[in-house]
Amino acid sequence: MINKLIWFSLFFSKAYGFSDIKNKIPFTERTIMPIASVSKTVIALSLAKAIEMAYFDVETPINDILPFKIVNPHYPNDTIRIKHLFTHTSGIVDNQSTFINSYELATKLSISMGVFLKNCLYKNGKDFNVVNFGKSRVGNKYNYSNIASDLAAYLVELKSGISFAEFTYKYIFSRLSLQNTHWFFDENKSKDYAKLYEINTSNFPFYKNLMNDDKTIKDYTSIIYPDGSLKTSLDDLIRYVKEIINCHNSKSKILNKESYKTIFKKRFDEMNFPANVDKSLSNQAMFGSTIKKVG
Predict the structure, then answer these.
(1) 54 torsion bin: left (phi>0), alpha (psi -120 to 50), beta (else)
(2) CA atoms of 48 and 37, how far apart (whole Å)
(3) Which of 33, 161, 229, 256 is the most buried (most CB within 10 A)?
(4) pLDDT digit string (tens) for 159-185?
(5) Residues 36, 246 contacting (CB under 8 angstroms)
(6) What is the C-alpha separation between 239 and 235, in angstroms, rounded?
(7) Are strands 231-233 and 221-222 parallel, antiparallel or unpaired?
């Protein structure tokens, strides 16, 4: 956590290597690539914006918003609140098979994020499984969860009345002029996509089907896209990081000062520190950890 003013000046920016090794296409500052879980910082900004718009607050129980109820079968009387989603203490966990089933070899979603979440987290959902929930009470254990992160994005979607992708474009991407930043495959921008290559092998059938013979990765999509499917370029990412720094300096283009504080507030200071978190080393903000200086 940074508690003093930070100034942003860009001194140097350059891209290296190839976006397509076989065809020797250079990787440039406009090459578009997926940025994995950096996507969750967009969920944080969206939650802060939704709070600013009075859709809910961090203490709001998720079942006050959802059209279906989510209950941890191990602790059915516990109340999961929005703050538990963004601090990864909700008790909703990433069961590997459930998470993998969110990926599809396609460029368009077959079902909505809301349907997927209902199927796997609602007790009468067709893919419900108790292993999607941890055996610790809400707030008592830190357990990094992509699915819980997507649930937070879904709450924004429900309260705003538009998809999460539309919400982020309207309130974040367009206001920051992020022209190469988007969630789903875009045919018009695909010529600028970097080729993706296999690094780690896996025995899961989906991963095997995902690979081409030359170890490049086929086009795919994720139903629960907010947790890690954002595509962007170096140019756009620089503008985005500048906005995060501007949030620290109360000069945001998209959030007011109080909303900025909502993002960066150390949450475990007001909650019980989870048993598996060393309070001398780290704390948790909104989809971000704060690491204390060591040594």
Answers:
(1) left
(2) 18
(3) 229
(4) 999 999 999 999 999 999 999 999 999
(5) no
(6) 7
(7) unpaired
At which residue do the structure tokens 């069961």 appear?
95
What pLDDT, in 10s, does the model give residues 108-158? Answer: 999 999 999 999 999 999 999 999 999 999 999 999 999 999 999 999 999
250-277 residues labelled b (16+ CB within 10 A) or e (exposed): eebebbeeebbebbbbebbeebebbeeb
Give every CB contact of residue 121 below 8 A, 6+ residues apart in sequence: 70, 92, 128, 132, 147, 151
Three-state secondary structure readout of 156-205: HHHHHCCCHHHHHHHHHHCCCCCCCCECCCCCCCHHHECCCECCCCCCCH
Return phi, psi of residue 217, to 5°.
-100, 135
The Cα–Cα gap between 255 and 262 comes to: 10
Q: Detail the DSSP E strand segments found in 50-202.
A: 103-104
Round to whole Å and give the CA distance between 4 and 196.
Answer: 38
> Closest Cα partner for 38 from 292, 199, 210, 226?
226
Chain mean position to CA 69:
22
pTM score: 0.93
Give dist(CA 253, CA 45) in Å, integer. 12
254 three-class SS: coil
Tokens 């705003």, residue located: 160
Spatial CB neighbours of 189, under 8 Å, sequence gap ≥ 6: 32, 180, 182
